[in-house]
């Protein structure tokens, strides 16, 4: 796909070289558009060599091709990394004094900007106002990381690592491709309703519809230790919960992710946990100030009643006659707390926070997946229940998902997929946004 990589004049411009390489190696057609200041940090020959294309900063080079209009019109994605305070101000006020700012005005594709600057500049009210303006217009702002800046300074303002920025680019391109494919499919089916995959394209309104909201997401399968070596767990990878956290951050929310799966997600506060009891404590603490809580984690229903401080041996006992007992040990289980039910009970009659549950179900002789899900929604009392069928080769660890979104207040259920977990996440947040 066609990507315009904008580079503004900051020391972090050197990281954009690695981002360019990642995009090119993935097969994308990348055009680098630096500012004049950016060339003070990384020269035009470097950009040209890595992209295989000539590099220009002004609107006069190759004017017969009208690059200041064509590049934005034809791009599938515009990524600006780093985006300096100066460039954010120009973009927010619609200035167009070089090629990059012209491209930003003509682009009708997703635009991602990754700010990088000193902490004082990032925290300044003018910069924050410009970021808010751009977010409201649909620009995806990747929050800066915290860490070592230039000189001896440290703090928020560091450009995220190229691998993280590349992942953001791929998510945006996947959304665009999914939305385009769904639109074509819907147009080709006379009288058919449009697929929920159309939610993959974030409009400006949806891009900022969670701005100012505090969101808590749980993810992953908990591990209940038997001894220092073994544990009881499940096959949940945490991918859907992580995708929900990223999607919420992209839509402007302040996100806390409580997860048992390793995660380092731009713009997301990650709280690592392992057991159900640890997850309960972290979720309840974060939910106290939350507007939305999404329980996407696969929390173990049971845990061992006792923990063996030493590894349980294969031969775990000796008979009175001195022979080894080769039978399997008996493990007594106790029930873990129901975090979702506790969240609903704690909320009481209030309608805040909005509570979203997940139901990984299998059908049986007593009912279908949706039969069990509707009963669970009634029993749990949460506002939204996201249902998916699980089993061998279904859902766990996959990059795609198929779900049905049910609302306690009634109304039509929403079916999504098969689709990427990013697209499923957007569909969930679409439903949640209507409840806020």
Notes on the protein architecture:
This protein folds into 2 domains: 2-173, Flavin prenyltransferase-like (Rossmann fold, 3-Layer(aba) Sandwich), CATH 3.40.50; 204-307 and 326-435, 3-Layer(aba) Sandwich (Rossmann fold). Strand 9 and strand 10 form a beta hairpin. The chain contains 14 helices and 21 strands. With 436 residues, it is an alpha/beta fold. The longest helix is centred in the middle third of the chain and has 27 residues, at 162-188. The relative contact order is 0.09. The chain has helices spanning 13-25, 44-51, 67-74, 85-93, 99-106, 119-123, 125-136, 162-188, 204-207, 239-250, 276-287, 339-347, 369-380, 421-435; strands at residues 2-7, 29-34, 77-83, 111-115, 140-141, 145-148, 154-158, 214-219, 224-225, 231-232, 254-259, 268-272, 292-295, 302-304, 317-318, 324-325, 333-335, 354-361, 384-389, 400-407, 414-420.
């Amino acid at each position: 796909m066609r990507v315009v990589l904008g580079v503004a004049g900051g020391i972090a411009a050197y990281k954009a070289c690695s981002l360019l390489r990642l995009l090119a190696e993935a097969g994308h057609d990348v055009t680098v558009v630096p500012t004049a200041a950016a060339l003070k940090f990384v020269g035009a020959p470097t950009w040209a060599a890595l992209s295989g294309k000539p590099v220009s900063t002004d609107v006069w080079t190759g004017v017969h091709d009208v690059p200041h209009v064509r590049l934005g019109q034809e791009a599938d994605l515009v990524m600006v990394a780093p985006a300096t305070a100066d460039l954010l101000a120009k973009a927010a006020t619609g200035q167009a004094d070089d090629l990059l700012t012209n491209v930003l005005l003509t682009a009708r594709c997703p635009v991602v900007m990754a700010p990088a600057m000193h902490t004082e500049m990032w925290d300044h009210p003018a910069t924050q106002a410009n970021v808010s303006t751009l977010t409201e217009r649909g620009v995806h702002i990747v929050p800066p990381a915290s860490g070592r800046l230039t000189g001896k300074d440290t703090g928020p303002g560091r450009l995220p690592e190229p691998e993280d920025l590349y992942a953001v680019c791929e998510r945006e391109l996947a959304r665009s491709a999914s939305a385009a494919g769904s639109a074509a499919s819907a147009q080709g089916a006379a009288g058919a309703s449009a697929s929920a995959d159309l939610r993959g394209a974030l409009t400006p309104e949806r891009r900022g519809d969670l701005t100012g909201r505090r969101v808590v997401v749980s993810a992953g399968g908990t591990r209940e230790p038997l001894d220092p070596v073994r544990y009881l767990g499940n096959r949940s990878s945490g991918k859907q919960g992580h995708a929900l956290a990223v999607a919420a951050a992209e839509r402007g929310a302040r996100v806390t992710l409580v997860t048992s799966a390793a995660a380092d997600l731009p713009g997301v506060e990650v709280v690592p946990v392992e057991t159900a009891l640890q997850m309960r404590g972290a979720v309840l603490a974060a939910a106290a100030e939350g507007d939305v809580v999404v329980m996407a984690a696969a929390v173990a229903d049971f845990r061992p009643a006792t923990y063996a401080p030493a590894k349980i041996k294969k031969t775990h006992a000796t008979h009175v006659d001195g022979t080894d007992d080769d039978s399997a040990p008996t493990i007594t289980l106790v029930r873990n707390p129901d975090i979702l039910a506790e969240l609903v009970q704690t909320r009481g009659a209030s309608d805040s926070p909005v509570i979203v549950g997940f139901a990984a179900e299998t059908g049986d002789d007593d009912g279908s997946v949706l039969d069990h899900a509707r009963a669970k929604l009634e029993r749990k009392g949460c506002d939204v229940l996201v249902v998916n069928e699980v089993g061998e080769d279904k859902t766990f660890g996959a990059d795609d998902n198929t779900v049905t979104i049910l609302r306690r207040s009634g109304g039509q259920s929403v079916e999504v997929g098969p689709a990427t977990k990013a697209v499923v996440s957007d569909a969930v947040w679409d439903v949640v946004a209507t409840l806020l």
